[in-house]
Amino acid sequence: MAEIIQGLGEGGVVADIPAVIAPINTFSDSLNMRFIDQAIETFTGEELYATVAIAPSFGIQWRRPDQTYNVFGKNGDFVRVDAAGSVASIFSSVDAKYSNSKWRSTYFNGGYAIVVNNGKSTPLYSLFGSAVTNLQELPGWNWQPSVTISAKVIKSFGYSLVAANLTLDNGSTITYAPSTIRISVQAAAGAIPDIWQPGLTTDTADEFEINSTSPILDMAELRGSLFVYTATEIHVIRIGQQTTRQSYSTSRGILNTNCVVEADNFHYVVDKNDIYRHSGGGGFEPVCEKRTRRKFFKELNDAHSDKVFVLHESEFKEIWICYPSGVATTCNKAMVINYRSGATYFRSIPNATDYFRGGKTNGSTFSNVADSTYFVNGSTQVLVTYDGFDMWDGTAFAPVQSYLERKKMSSGDVSGTTLISSLYPLVDAATNSVSIRMVGQNSYTRDVNLSLNDPESSDLFVLDTTSDTSQNNKVDPRSNGRLINYRMFSSGYWRLAAMSFDAKPASRR
Q1: Residue 28 in contact with residue 15, Cβ under 8 Å?
Q2: Is 397 part of a structural domain of the chain?
Q3: Does a structural domain hold residue 500?
Q4: Pair 420, 502: CB distance under 8 Å
Q5: Residue-number span of the structural domain to which 407 is assigned
Q6: What would the pLDDT profile of 10-57 be if each residue is shown by its tens digit?
Q7: Got the DSSP string for 256-318?
Q8: Among 346, 313, 263, 427, which residue's Cα sits nearest to residue 43?
Q9: Is the residue at 302 inside a domain?
Q10: Is 407 domain-assigned?
């Protein structure tokens, strides 16, 4: 009698522990398959959003009170695109301080303004309702005579802006202040903060250092506090009648800027050793321990770890950790963590240099019903996730290529007296056939090649999902063994709704 594999859609990929003892509902590897609703189905893909002549490396969706724009930037050029596709230049400069810029952004005052920052020059902003519609330098920022200040990161916090990791340039001397934090005054409604000089008012303007052994890399709000992340520590800032700061952890940190995101009142963080979350109360929880943490760091291209970024895919309750794998220099892969089920799995990413979340165009407006993810990759083509099943392969859009792989699966009897004789995948939807490569083995140390190009074609089966006969909907391995290895792969959409297997005594014929 066939044994049904329980919790198929909750297992995810478990690659860090020995495969032979991994739960039977887990997989050794996967690509472009989403574990959701008690099943496993193909990831939705991406489509072309727009062609932007400046070949942007940065983007943000600005939801202003009157309308929404997508804003794109590259070095000293910025354009905004409305829902109808009309493009307008909002900033253009050939100044060397904008060359090779890696722009980051923050919203201010409920969308009344956006602030963009490259860590090399005075931050720029655009304010809704003002006479100036272009990006311009923040007012009051360079309050010290003949000193130009830049900041690694700047974030909105309450009615103030907070900047950190400063560089001061007076023309002849450059002073680095990697642990220094600046806080602006609180802005009036509909305005941008215009005073940064401490002591000039009784408001919140302040400048101080935190006691840190490494530079500040990022900041993020959680439960009314601003968490300041360095490579090795976390500090907390609270702004009120008096600004307070305190150490939060000296054993945790962050890998680089854009490696923290908030979801369900938790910060999800990637640091140089771990992937963890915390709720602001002091406790830390590894989110993929004994699952895929070691796999992620093994695949990550260390030389380009500064390209890693983290995004929150709220519709599917997922955290995407986008990273350059292998020899890639931009993000070509994402490790996906479903923070409701705990499952982790993997998706291809279109060589992204940056991303932003926002509504898609719906006629002459942007939709506010559900957000999509926009990817920029340094080319003129901006991509956006959608409900179809094509992905950008570097040259064109093509059906999603996906697979599920399980190595060294045991019936539970590792002595070898009980063998898995058949596998019954229940594929309840597919746009194409599903192929299965299945190989048995006795040696635990043997590594089996399950790729489509494996020269051992004798164990390749094609699952006929439209056939009404049971024989065409099961797989019988041609080689027996104590352990079974299999890979299911297809193109386009398919869904694995359930799976079961038959086991028999090894001596039975």
Answers
A1: yes
A2: no
A3: yes
A4: yes
A5: 3-43+402-505
A6: 999 999 999 989 999 999 999 999 999 999 999 999 999 999 999 999
A7: STT-EEEETTEEEEE-SS-EEEE-SSS-EEESSTTTTHHHHHHHB-GGGGGG-EEEEEGGGTE
A8: 346
A9: no
A10: yes
CA distance readout (Å), 430 to 47, 113, 149: 21, 46, 57
Written as one letter, the residue type at 387 is D
pLDDT digits (tens, 9 = 90+) for 250-259: 999 999 999 9
Spatial separation of the C-alpha atoms in residues 304 and 398, rounded to whole Å: 27
Tell me the per-residue pLDDT of 298-311, one tens digit each, with 9 for 90 and over. 999 999 999 999 99
- Do 459 and 437 touch, CB atoms closer than 8 A? yes
Alpha-carbon torsion, ordered 57, 271, 342, 314, to 10 deg: -30
Q: What is the dihedral of CA 92, 93, 97, 102, to 10 degrees?
A: 20
Q: Which residue has the tokens 């079974």?
A: 484
- The residue whose two tokens read 């916090």 is 157
Between the alpha carbon of residue 286 and those of residues 268, 328, 346, 393, the distances in Å are 10, 26, 18, 33
Q: What's the mean per-residue pLDDT of the chain? A: 90
What is the per-residue DSSP string for 428-493?
Answer: EEESS-EEEEEEEES-TT-----STT-S-GGGEEEE-TT--SGGGG-B--SS--SEEEEEEEEES-
Beta strands (DSSP E) in 64-209 are 68-74, 77-81, 87-92, 104-108, 113-117, 124-127, 136-137, 148-157, 160-169, 174-183, 206-209
